[in-house]
Specification:
The protein is an alpha+beta fold. The chain contains three helices and six strands. The longest helix has 17 residues. The N and C termini lie far apart (43 Å).
Amino acid sequence: MGTKENLRVVDSFLEALDARDWDRYFGLLGDDLEYYHPSMKRPSRGVAAHQRKLDLHVDSFSDYKIDVLRRFGQGDWVCAEWTSMTSEVVKGKRRRVRFDFCGVFKITNGRISRLYEYVDRAGVPV
């Protein structure tokens, strides 16, 4: 697949995440998915491990809305930057927060085989 097709895979992935279309979301992940987030000691392997991590976040931030800012690619690799607006409850009070994300994706045979996801929490009030 070329860069244009790989960009479409990432677009579809982010659209599925935003829509909470889990069938489409997990259908875009390769069986051998390697997922990394800075909160992890080491990358997880496989879709089931990623699903456990995702379930924690989706349950905590159930009203998120994604806005894709930009994405670009070269060959099998795609980089995307997006924000997620959501609310969280802190000390009994609900507040709106924004998370800034950057994801580095490797696409293999039309599916995401590597996802390295980084989040900037500097703008989140504590």
